Every structure is written in C-alpha cells, then in structure tokens.
Amino acid sequence: MHALSVRQLVKIYANGVQALAGIDLDVPRGDFCALLGPNGAGKTSLIGIVTSLVRKTSGTVRVFGHDLDHELNAVKSAIGVVPQEINLNLWDKVSNIVVNQAGFYGVPPARARRRAETCLRQLQLWDRRHDSARTLSGGMKRRLMIARALMHEPELLILDEPTAGVDIEIRRSMWDFLRAINAAGTTIILTTHYLEEAENLCRHVAIIDHGRVIVDDRMAAVLTRLQQEHFLLTLREPLAILPPLPGFEARLVSDHEVEVAVPRSRQINELFAGLSAAGLQVASLRNKTNRLEELFVTLTERKDKLPASRPGETRP
Amino acid sequence: MSLRQQAVALATLSRKEYHRVVRIWLQTVLPPAINMGLYFLIFGELIGARIGQMDGFDYRQYIAPGLIMMAVITNSYGNVVSSFFSAKIHRHLEEMLVAPMSPATIALGHMVGGIVRGILVGLMVVVVARLFTPLPLTHPLITAAVFLLCAAIFSLAGLINGILAQHFDDISIIPSFVLQPLTYLGGVFYSINLLPELAQQLSKLNPILYIVNAFRYGMLGVSDIDIGAAFAMMLASLVLLFVVCLVLLERGTRIRD
C-alpha cells in the first residue's frame, strides 16, 4: 500500500490559474521523497490538497488507502504537515501550541502532555516550553512547527520547505532528526529549494513543473541521468591564456580559476592527466553546482529562478 | 474521529478560547465594565433622575437589563469574530483545518469562547449596575436562560462574520453599522410603548428587542414582548445560525482555497 497515491489531480483556482494539470504520483510507505519544482510549479497546491486546505478541481487522492473524498478524517489523522509559512499563534506558549494540536486530533490531555515532552525534547525546545512562540528564533519556530506536526504521531509527515531561512548547523540537526523518524517508520515528503538537502536526505524524487510530474524515480536513478558535471578548479599560479585540455570543454573564469565540463563518459583522472600535461597546478577543486541542482535546471529550464548553489569543496 | 475524540477536541478548543479571554482580560473584560459604568452614570444618574419611572421602575433599574444584554451581545460577538478572523489572517486556523475536527466541534468550541466572555463581561456589568441601583431577580431561570442564549446566538453570529470576513474592515462593519444601531433601537433605554404605532411594529422586526425584553422580564418581571415569542425567536435564531456555521465550515467558504 502506498502512503500517498495521487491520480490525475487537477487544480484550477477561481482566478483561472491552473496549478495542477493532471498529477500522478505514488509515494511508497516508509519512503523519504523529495518533491521538487520551481516556484509556481504546483508543489504547495499539491500539498494543500492532500492536507485538505485546498479543494481539488478533479482527480483522486488516497493516503494509506483512504480516499480523500470519502474518508477525510482518516486521511487527516494519518498526516502531519509543516507548512512553508510560519503559521503559529505567536502569542501562545510553546507547550500550549503542541498540546492543543494533539487535542485537536482527539489525543487526551495527559497523553498529549507526555507526547509534547518527547517532541519538544527531540527538537531541543523543551527548555523554551513556557515561552511564547514570538520569542523564538526563526529556526526554533520551524522546529516548533515540526514538533506540532508530530504530536498525533502521523504515519506521513509532509514538510514544505522546512529549512528555509535556517542556519546550516540547525539545518543539519533537523536532517538528522528527519532521518531518525524516517528510519523509525514515518513516511516523509519534503519540498525544498536546497537541492543539496534533497540529495542528502531523500531516496525518491519527484519533480513538478507547470503542474505536471516530469520526473518520478529513485534519487540514484535520477542522478544517473546527469550527462556532465561542471567543476571549478583553483590554480596555484595565475594564468593569462588557458592551454587546450583535449576531450574537455574548459574556460578561464579568472586568472586563478578554470571551469571544466566533465562528461559522464570520461573519468576525472583523465582530467587531471590533461591538467598535468598542460603544466597546470591545481590547488583545489569543487562542483560548480550540486548534482541534483544541475539536473533540475536542465529539466525545468528555469535557471533564473533557482537559488544560489552551495557547492561542496573537495581536494584532488 | 470518534465521538469521544471529538469531545476531546471540543474541550481543547474551548479551553484555548477561554485562556485567550482570560489572558487578555485587560482588553476583553475590563473595558466593557468601564463603558457600562459610564452608561449608568450618564443615562442612569444624570439624565435618568429627570426621566423618573418607566414601566413602574426607577429608570436606572429599567435600563440595567438592557445594558447587561448590550454588553453580552457586543462581547460575545466581538470575541468570536476577532478570535476566528485573527486565526485566519495569521493562518493558525490551519491547526484546526488540517485536524479531523468536525465543523460542529469548531463551531461549538468558538461558541464556548464567546459565551465565556459574554458571561464574564455580563457579570462585571451586573456588579457595576449594583453600585448604582438594586437589581431584582424575579425569574432567575428565565434570566439565566436568556443570558446564555444571547451569548450563544451572538457568538455564532460573530463566527459567521469571522468566516466570511476577508479584510479587517469586514469585522468592524457589522458591529458598527448593524449590531450597534439594532441594540440602541432594541429597547435598551426605552419601552417601545412610547413609540408611535408604526415605529412599534418596525421595532418588532428587531431580534435584539426580544432578547432585551426577555431578559428584562427575567429580572424585573416586565416586558413589551410576549415571553413565549421571545424564546421562540431566540431558539430559532440559535438553530439557524448554527446551521449556517456548519454549512460554511463544511464548504470551507473563504477558509479553504
């Protein structure tokens, strides 16, 4: 049984905008799925429909076999959602927010308070439980929304850009936490603009563009579609004219930096052989873009809408 | 979700709304008490002394039930409309919308919040009124029933306003341009028997007239309106408004895209 199964899902808003043009998507139980797409691709509309905040125009949605149209309460009970925007009652106390959320799902108060302690401790918010939400930092508010979404122990957790605006240290601790709850059996669907995040966390990737799923496959399989990778080489000595590197497309970015495209058919050792033959001393090498990001740009052809890349640096 | 789980959800929402009222008591409970104190001072003490008696009662006593109802109406309505609309604008209403709470649970939970504020403010006004005049309690059960019904009716009316409102203006238009005039013309300060025949008939189209007179009957034992008709009107309004709330919440009108 799939955690989420969507068929021919269409959403046309009252102003005539078609956000979803017939989406088909299956997310297996226990999966960690990245839902990617440029701004306006339809990701948030899809999540809105699945969480019943947005009414669909047509199509079917099933969550663990429960039909959204006929078993809405079963669908709602199975899902925990962390929205893109901060939607906390900022005047309420941290503990009240999570305990009340459990209550809205019918969890009795005593159990809700025990569960709140577990969730708040896991997300390092227990010490702030008596504070009002408005006093929390941006990262803490995001973690509080995750704690809130987990209060009723959902089988499917949907996170819409949960790490937006969160510093790298907290982001990595959130990744560890998400990996742990996924390993414990919770199915996770994640949308993010940090494609490094999707590549690190997710086993399955679905890319939406113009309201349609254009890629739906295992992460490893998707990455094999990448035809070439771009590397930036930092040179030890300045260079005025770049000597030819046979078999590779290369250009001088600055007097100390060279960009090289390495096709999948070639090995990186061959590049270094060529560099040595040309007498070039390389101080460091890094990916110009994240691999998934490169593929994403190719597939969606919207380079102008992507966030700045976060290349990982390696030494030859 | 089972009935028991819905009961837990209802208790949670009711508690949340109660805490909201109590947490901001300086905004919710105190100002109406001060306002009503001023009404008693100006209309009761200063002007009322020159008016003399109305329907056999001292004018201060005569206006007290109406002023208590006026406070209950304004505050029950205002509590729910501001709570719901604020949750909608700041999007924490989604906490309830994504949960398997039934529309009835959401409507009743907000209604409880409105009733709590209506009762707290109403009791504060009773205390203030007692500073100016003795308050008889001729029919305690009728008084309590009207108190509760009035708070419940206007809580639901406030919820409808909150659901339909899209801008901050939308939550002040109804209280300012509909509720307040109807309250002032609803027999708070006068008996409709003082009005010309046509005005009397027009007044009987005003639902607040029935509530004020039913409450006055409970306290003083006098009313311009048949008490049975008043209760029929209140119960019918309660049912009608509750059904409208359920339909709007079920459809997701202006709360789901």
Describe this structure in words.
The complex is a heterodimer of chains A (316) and B (257). Chain A is of the alpha/beta class and 316 residues long. Chain A has two domains: 2-223, Rossmann fold, CATH 3.40.50.300; 228-314, Alpha-L RNA-binding motif (Alpha-Beta Plaits). Chain A has helices spanning 43-50, 72-78, 94-104, 109-122, 138-150, 168-183, 195-201, 219-223, 268-277, 291-300, and strands spanning 2-12, 18-28, 32-36, 58-63, 66-67, 79-82, 156-160, 187-191, 204-209, 212-218, 228-235, 249-254, 257-263, 282-287, 313-314. In chain A, a hairpin with a 2-residue loop joins strand 4 (58-63) and strand 5 (66-67). In chain A, helix 3 crosses helix 4 (109-122), helix 3 runs parallel beside helix 5 and helix 4 (109-122) crosses helix 5 (138-150). The relative contact order of chain A is 0.13. With 257 residues, chain B is mainly alpha-helical. Chain B has one domain. Chain B has a two-stranded antiparallel sheet. In chain B, helix 6 packs across helix 7 (140-164), helix 6 crosses helix 11 (227-251) and helix 7 (140-164) runs antiparallel to helix 10. Chain B is elongated, with a radius of gyration of 19 Å. Classes of the chains: A alpha/beta (316), B mainly alpha (257).
